[in-house]
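Final report, closing paragraph on structural work. Over the funding period we assembled a curated collection of sequence-structure pairs, and we close with a single example.
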Amino acid sequence: MDNQNTNSPAPSRRSLLTAGGAGLALGAVAAGGAVALVSSDGDAMEPAAESGGPVPFYGEHQAGIATAVQDRLHFAAFDVKTDDRDAFVQLLKDWTEAAALMTEGRPVGDGAYGGLAEAPPDDTGEALGLKASRLTLTIGFGPSLFATYGKAFGIADKRPAALVELPKFPGDNLDRTRSGGDLCVQACADDPQVAVHAIRNLARIGFGKVAIRWSQLGFGKTSSTTPDAQTPRNLMGFKDGTRNIAGTDTKRLDAHVWADGGDGAGWMKGGSYLVARRIRMNIETWDRTSLQEQEDVFGRDKGEGAPVGKAKERDEPFLKAMKPDAHVRLAHPDTNDGATLLRRGYSFTDGTDGLGRLDAGLFFLAYQKDPRTGFIPVQRRLAAHDALNEYIQHVGSAVFAVPPGVRDSKDWWGRGLFDDTASTKGGA
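Its predicted structure, as stored:
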């Protein structure tokens, strides 16, 4: 591939990447809900959550799923613009190398300055001097990648059975320009500029081969994978994600989050399936609703977050004590044959709608073993009966197959999907 024509890093620049990176070993252990780094000589280092340091990029699973949830999000869905399989595979390799550098807090390629004055810099430069800020980058492939480019890329028969298009649910008012996508990248960090920098540079590297279809900035995490930490609140003022799966709970992660590759897509073993929904809240209506009604809608009290009739947030809820249309009652696994999701949602505010109302709400992100037994049946129940529907509307939607992690510096995002397929030229 001609690197000069594709804006990809030159081979000499890519060679800067090493497995050890900045002297950090590839392993990580949980430490108080944070990610603890281990140096190359085996000595424990300051936890990333406390230091603003790097989260290890390499591993069995992609970071950014069970990882301790960061404070900020930049999520981007991309459309593919090439039917050249080799060019697309090279893009995935280039993206992987750039991601590994950025998650270590390092610039892409030769950096933002000091290179040829006649050429654009390899890195856009706005993250210079900033910490890694626990940046994680997580990639996923949408159903349309297989439907549109399956033949050209030689992957038509490798679409997982679990990667289904989401049905239209009652009350959906989806904006097509904020839905779908051939692939996605989820950038989470504790510094918004670090997250934006990561997406910006991946989009620059992908110029001519992919283009951003839509994106979403998020703040104020609305769920946590570290249950020992304080439960965050959503924009309605209620604690969210009390019963979320802990990032250290390997048993529940195996049961509900990690794909086993048993549906004919062995390349997805160790991966997961991501559902993204942009949910707008009718903030002004909610703010004029009585406290009692607000608590009835959720099935929890607003102060402590305790379920109806209980004293503490984490007390086991007595579902029948809640109103039949209470959100917690309808979303609870016991109401949905055990369906359980790992949520990583964020709040958003995107100005106003021109009528003086805030365009604000929840950018819902949920990982699961299979959307057919996870998100879809739960959302069908919620869409039909949830009292919360009076105050929210789903306006954006997408689903992605998130492959397993990158094992080492010779591996790359999506390798299992492409490495045993023949090169296929021609149109899709």
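Residues 1-428 form one domain. The two ends are 20 Å apart (CA to CA). We thank the funder for supporting this effort.
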